[in-house]
Amino acid sequence: xxxxxxxxxxxxxxxxxxxxxxxxxxxxxxxxxxxxxxxxxxxxxxxxxxxxxxxxxxxxxxxxxxxxxxxxxxxxxxxxxxxxxxxxxxxxxxxxxxxxxxxxxxxxxxxxxxxxxxxxxxxxxxxxxxxxxxxxxxxxxxxxxxxxxxxxxxxxxxxxxxxxxxxxxxxxxxxxxxxxxxxxxxxxxxxxxxxxxxxxxxxxxxxxxxxxxxxxxxxxxxxxxxxxxxxxxxxxxxxxxxxxxxxxxxxxxxxxxxxxxxxxxxxxxxxxxxxxxxxxxxxxxxxxxxxxxxxxxxxxxxxxxxxxxxxxxxxxxxxxxxxxxxxxxxxxxxxxxxxxxxxxxxxxxxxxxxxx
Amino acid sequence: xxxxxxxxxxxxxxxxxxxxxxxxxxxxxxxxxxxxxxxxxxxxxxxxxxxxxxxxxxxxxxxxxxxxxxxxxxxxxxxxxxxxxxxxxxxxxxxxxxxxxxxxxxxxxxxxxxxxxxxxxxxxxxxxxxxxxxxxxxxxxxxxxxxxxxxxxxxxxxxxxxxxxxxxxxxxxxxxxxxxxxxxxxxxxxxxxxxxxxxxxxxxxxxxxxxxxxxxxxxxxxxxxxxxxxxxxxxxxxxxxxxxxxxxxxxxxxxxxxxxxxxxxxxxxxxxxxxxxxxxxxxxxxxxxxxxxxxxxxxxxxxxxxxxxxxxxxxxxxxxxxxxxxxxxxxxxxxxxxxxx
Lengths: 356, 341
Description:
heterodimer; A: alpha/beta; D-Maltodextrin-Binding Protein, domain 2; five-stranded mixed sheet; three-stranded parallel sheet; B: mainly alpha; MetI-like fold; 16 helices
């Protein structure tokens, strides 16, 4: 075989195909048109010119973000994005959801691939100060909890003295439990597993009196047990896991929009405005309601949005309580009690600054 | 004593199952015990599996999410386009084989070219059709698409690498050899991570590939190296006389390659290429790690529906069945191609 023949043939084909493949790859749609102008004109302008919001979610977390049977995204994290889209476009469907895994979520935000990260992300100091992102208000107060069998009669942490507790190893869960039990001078038998499925299977078999994990995780796991109603989650919370949406830092205007969208959801629940009733408020004399809904004053202007932005949000996605009930509440298979996610005046932590 | 007649018929072979059992499974006492133990074990697993499938499993998670698993979020009112795509794709091997039969392979290639343009138009829309973004192509649709697109696009690159590795120009040869050996020595998952996170840094600033394109680029880079080795096998199996005869006829170097060498070399390695496509098809499940909603990815998303939490077994069994059906069909088709060739 003449070797030179291969050389020339290869060079000719190489030139041909590299142009072909370049054309092919570059013809893929860019992630977000007009990304280059982001820094100068602000994220809101980018979103408006694109005609939709791009929102990073997990897509694999029950109650927070997942694909429904109809192929539409659902969940608490998802509804936060829909609320922002409603404020901007008066259309909760004007959102494109991107599934992100835990590793790439912050990169996606920094590179501008997504406008908002709404992916059950715990708000911590190191994340706020080091990775170049800015957190919006907390939308879900999670925390580590303990699940026990109802029949055992255990009602508080103290009653777990000298009992076996199933734990998943290598997580902060194990450390938190040890710390809390030491603080109270309680001894217990840890039964440690590598795998989360084994942890819960062992608890289900009855080898441990209790099992520990994030409360939202305990609740979703409880629904997979043979008799979910036979198990209760103790009221004690062992650690703080506040979940909040995040945006890239360096765009205060965009941060204001996301922040006040979330506050509007909370404020609406406090004022008892629901998706149904919010459109019938035009004659409501209450000045706080009138200001929130843009019937009076100029609150939207400061955000670069119409004054009725809060009306749009509540009309389309409802208030915070409605979102919670729809995705996590008693009517869903998750049946997660509100707990700390109540309004401040009902014993919870949700508090919105005033709209004025 | 009477001698048997010289023309005795051959002894009748007893083919009854009882005899077969006795000869093969119970021929000694220890084989008998082994047979009983293993047989009992297999029977128990089988019965337990069937009982689970028939009574304990809740198949609603599959039946209610079937469209989602197959075509993902592709708009339901546009699904007729997918049926057309399927039709065009089935026509592909048929037309190539038919063209070969009638001694006019050109017809097959022209059809293949038109079909590809047709498929991308039908999928993506535009030019009169409602545009459908690629983030809505999920499930089995995306799996098939990623596997076939990366094989088709890796093919030219693989052929070039194979030719380059045999070249007499040292730089070209060394470069191709290094690339092939480097990629073949790395796990696919590593290359996918590189494509996901390094590729955006290497490309010029205003070039932005979306995540699907980056993943497919990773699959192409990986697949090309393996294809190169397969094609090299084909090239080396070609008798020298073929090229010498072509030279005698006065064909130029590119023509020799295009008309004589490549068609024969590639035909010889078609079964190996199909085998590689099958393994690539299964490897696309790794894309789920990059949150792309291909078959495995969408299964994970379906498992997050509050109604079906914990139904892992049903969902993974079902998508396993889909992977198997597709791979088995492909290997059967490729066997047919070999027979008819």
